[in-house]
Amino acid sequence: MSNNITVFGQQNTFKMRMVVLLLSVMMVRVLLMDAVVESTAEFDPYKVLGVTRSASQAEIKKVYKRLAKEWHPDKNKNPEAEDMFIKITKSYEILTNEEKRASYDRYGQTDNTHPYGRGHHGFRHFHDNFYFDESFFHFPFNNKGGRDFADSKYTLHFNQYISEVVPDSFKRPYLIKITSDWCFSCIHIEPVWKETVQELETLGIGIGVVDVGYERRLANNLGAHQTPSILGVVNGKVSFFHYAVVKGHLMQFIEDLLPQRLVEKVTDKNNQEFLKSWHELNKPHVLLFDQVPSVPLLYKLTAFAYKDYVQFGYVDQGLSETADLLRKFNINTYAPTMLVFKEDVEKPADIIQAKGMKKQIIDEFISNNKFLLAPRLVNQKLFDELCPVKQFHRRRKYCVLLITGEEESFATGNEAFLSLASANTNDVLRFAYVYQRRQQPLCDQVVILERRNGAGKILYKPVSGGWNGSKEDKHKLLEELERLQKDPSILNNDAVLPELNNEFTSMFLIRWIYTAYDYLAEIIDDLLHNNWREVMPLLSLIFSALFILFGTVVIQAFSDSSEEKQPKTKAKEASKAENGSPNTSIVLDITYTSNLVKLRPGHINVVLVLTDPTKNILLSKFAKEVYSFTGSFTLHFSFLNVDKHGEWMAAVLEYAQDAMQIDTDEDEAGSRKLDYTGYVLALNGHKKYLCLFKPVYTGEDLDSKPEEEGGGSRSRKGTTRSRSTTLQIHHKLDRLGLWMERLMEGTLPRYYVPAWPGLDKITVNK
Questions:
Q1: pLDDT of res. 714
Q2: Where do the record's region annotations for Disordered lie (predicted)?
């Protein structure tokens, strides 16, 4: 009996304890609900910012800037500064969003971005958004200790994005998450994001996280106007992720970001065509053998990173069309295999095989095989990498350069040079060749050179006797290379090389078509997903450009037709009246208008005055004197035949009265025509002024001598005819270089003309 009483008492005690525990839990929940309701009631974005409910967007923005600067945690050391700053940011987000502001004005809360949940579903929302972590009922945001700092190492800032991420996106894609401290949906995608990021990092993909509360400028720059958002950046172009946040979708999104045609599928039929294209593309070729039907993402990413150096191909080992390739290169089908082919398409230059092929192993393998054994210098970038500028003694590099041609007659010498490069095992030496018709070579032979600075200065030594590919030529070159290893001072010649031409510029149109196709596909994708906010700026830019283009063409067409109609009519009539040839006047009209009357502001036309007998001599001297100034985009050079257009020359100098004092002594009588041969005019068509260069006469002035009686007329004619002999024609432009320097400095006197002479002054004299 006593035992039964004891058991009954124990059961009652246990029940009482359970009741007390349940009551305690209920009390805790009620208290937490009250705290949530109280916090909800306390949060008023209008009170936080100190604005009225009728405040405009401009007023809200102005107040926000002031409060954000005042309460920023980096500047305000108040312990409550961080919480206050978050409230200010959240209030600004609500009041600047029309939907959220309307929801708050109507219900006193927003849909899913309110910091403390919904009103009448407070407990349920509260329970769903609290989770057990290292602490009990740990809130996922709104404090430093509660926020998951796994994303902190990926945090991006605006300057970092512009200076680092955008340039690096041309080598690898970036996946960026847009989030904020008050985003409940961001917490829901966090597990998937972490798992995906962990795998993508091993593939070499860049990861970034942008907190809208702290980096609104960057978020606006990316076009991200809601949280959470996920986007990708490739080649500086931003693309948004529009699908469900699942690991498979994110992996496919990264793969779709990469450009098409990075990797070519290779079979028994096209393998020779693929490998033999090394000469045309000037790149090594890499073949990856694997059993999966689709190209692995890691391999695509590698192809994207090294697209400027290596051409990539993929062989599916499971296809019957690749059986011959597997037998030819003795491929082990149990592990992925990578082969590198250079000039020899029958034998791989390097090979790697591993079951778990990691990114670091592949990068090292490709980096060691980026160039052919003897690549062709097709642009300055390749030249800079093959033959770097000397920095210090241990990193000294020498380049053996063959200047050759594409014709069949050079084939023997080219093959001999390639065989010599293939046998080279010295890392200090780099072999390369250049086509003399496509570039500006140093000389027509084999050259050993070392670059001294980035401005093009080199030290070099030519190999005597040229290069025909004979055994004697190889022997002489090897001797010079052995001497170079012992004594670098044998490079005793110096020169400055011009920048190499880009031989692949003809492919620009193809690249432009591919880029346009990618942009068009992106626009269609945005339209399908109703992403009008991102599409509208681009469409606005396109329509604005088209409007400006067609508007300019129409206005220019009407203005040209009205302006040129009358002058052309007059020119035709004048030409017909003089020599009956209308075509000459039209040509003169076009040339005269484009080179002087309608010359762009800031541009100057430098005109040499000459005659038919002195044309060749003066033009040759003129070219030498002005050669150093031809790099200026504002200077134009031409000549004027004074025998045909003497009236125009006289008319211009007549306007410029000061310039007419150039030969006062010779022109006193006024009965002799001036000789303008060797004069140079700098004409500014827009500002209507000229600068004058007159030749420096070194001979004796025969006109100053008194004329002999009875033979005055003959003496004057003889003086005029003998001017070219007395005044050395090729010395007339000796001081033109100094005059050009003063012209560029702007220190020459300027003679202004009210208007340039008309067409009647430049027509051919009878």
A1: 45
A2: 702-726
Distance CA 64, CA 70 (A): 10
User: To which H or E segment does residue 175 belong?
Assistant: strand 174-179
- What is the distance between the alpha carbons of residues 437 and 577, in angstroms, rounded to a whole number? 50
pLDDT at 561: 53
How sure is the predictor about 341, in pLDDT bands with cuts at 50, 70 and 90?
very high
Longest dimension (CA), the chain: 174
Answer for the pair 204, 301: CB distance below 8 angstroms, yes or no. Answer: yes
**Region of poorest pLDDT, from 93-102, 267-276, 674-683:** 93-102
As a residue count, the chain comes to 766
Lowest mean pLDDT among 105-114, 135-144, 376-385, 682-691: 135-144
Encoded tokens for 431? 């072999």
What SS3 class is residue 540? helix
Quote the pLDDT of residue 162: 92
Q: 92 exposed, middle or buried (CB, 10 Å; 0-12, 13-18, 19+)?
A: buried
CA-to-CA separations, 186 to 20, 246, 281, 617, in angstroms, rounded: 38, 14, 47, 80
* DSSP per position, 514-534: HHHHHHHHHHHHHHHTT-HHH
The one-letter amino acid code at 304 reads: F
Q: In the chain, pLDDT over 70 holds for what percent of residues?
A: 69
At which residue do the structure tokens 């011009």 appear? 498
User: Is 94 in contact with 100 (CB distance < 8 Å)?
Assistant: yes
Q: Which residue is associated with the tokens 């702007």?
A: 746
List the structure tokens of 195. 């798992």
Of 169, 151, 150, 172, whose CA–CA distance to 160 is shortest? Answer: 169
Angle, helix 582-592 to helix 532-578, in steps of 10 degrees: 140
Q: Taking Cα atoms as reference points, which of 330, 349, 328 lies closest to residue 339?
A: 349
Q: How far is CA 596 from CA 439, 585, 635, 648, 689, in A?
A: 35, 16, 12, 13, 11
